[in-house]
Amino acid sequence: MVKIQILGTGCPKCRQLTEAAKTAAKEAGIEFQIEKVTDIQKIMAFGVMSTPALVVNGVVKVSGRVPSIEEIKGMIINNA
């Protein structure tokens, strides 16, 4: 199972990234769990300075932007 974390305070881009990550994981046919991390201290512990950020299995894959579904699919598949 792939653990996907969305780091952000709940802004529109954070919600957009959450939906894109769900869609990408479903399209890839991968079993996944999504967790939203909204606590600023926890976000900073990942070393992320700009949100939203996508974390796959504990590794920050992208921050400060919402990648395409195809990009996210690649990030998830390569870490499954």
Provide keyphrases for this structure.
about 80 residues, alpha+beta, Glutaredoxin, four-stranded mixed sheet, 4 strands, globular
Give the mean pLDDT.
95
User: How are strands sequenced across the largest beta sheet?
Assistant: 2-1-3-4
The number of helical elements comes to: 3
CATH class identity: Alpha Beta
Oligomer: single chain
Kindly name the structural category.
Answer: alpha+beta
Number of domains: 1
Q: What portion of the residues fall into strands of 2 or more residues?
A: 25-35%
Radius of gyration, taken over Cα atoms and rounded to an integer in Å = 11 Å
Description:
The chain has one domain (about 1-75): Glutaredoxin (3-Layer(aba) Sandwich), CATH 3.40.30. It is α+β, with helices and mostly antiparallel strands and about 80 residues long. The relative contact order is 0.28. The chain contains three helices and four strands, in the order E-H-E-H-E-E-H. A four-stranded mixed β-sheet has the order 2-1-3-4. The longest helix is centred in the N-terminal third of the chain and has 17 residues, at about 10-30. The chain starts with a strand and ends with a helix. Helix content is about 40%, strand content about 25%. The mean pLDDT is about 95.
List the helices and strands and how they pair.
Blueprint (H helix, E strand, L loop, with lengths): L1 E6 L4 H17 L3 E6 L2 H6 L7 E4 L2 E5 L5 H9 L3
Write a compact overview of the structure shown.
The chain is of the alpha+beta class.
